[in-house]
Amino acid sequence: MKGAIGERSVVVAAEGQVSSDLGGEVAILELEAGVYYGLDEVGARIWSLIQEPRSVDEVRDILLEEYEVEPERCQHDLIALLQRLAEEGLVKVEDEKSA
Fold it and tell me: What's the distance, CA 87 to chain centroid?
């Protein structure tokens, strides 16, 4: 695992897993280890957003438009979730490339 995830990091769901919507929540099966993971409604929305590469700040901005949450709390919780998903090998993380 690379360093910590920041707001300019780019995240995308990693290959090697399948996921399914379960009434607003998501179940993810990591195929290599055969381990299931579950995400609640907000986690499921994040999961849907990172099916294509997006920066953390882009995901945060979308969540702030869709949910009533303080920006600092949103940022903190989003990074914590993405860090956990990265540690489990469910997302790939790259630092934003300088233009």
Answer: 11
Q: What is the pLDDT of residues 35-80, one digit of tens each?
A: 999 999 999 999 999 999 999 999 999 999 999 999 999 999 999 9
If DSSP states are collapsed to H, E and C, what string results for 24-46?
Answer: CEEEEEECCCCEEEEECHHHHHH
CATH architecture for residues 10-94 = Alpha-Beta Complex (3.90)
Domain ranges of the chain: 10-94
For the packed helices 56-66 and 71-87, what is the interaxial angle rounded to 10 degrees? 130
Rounded CA-CA distance 21/91 in Å is 18
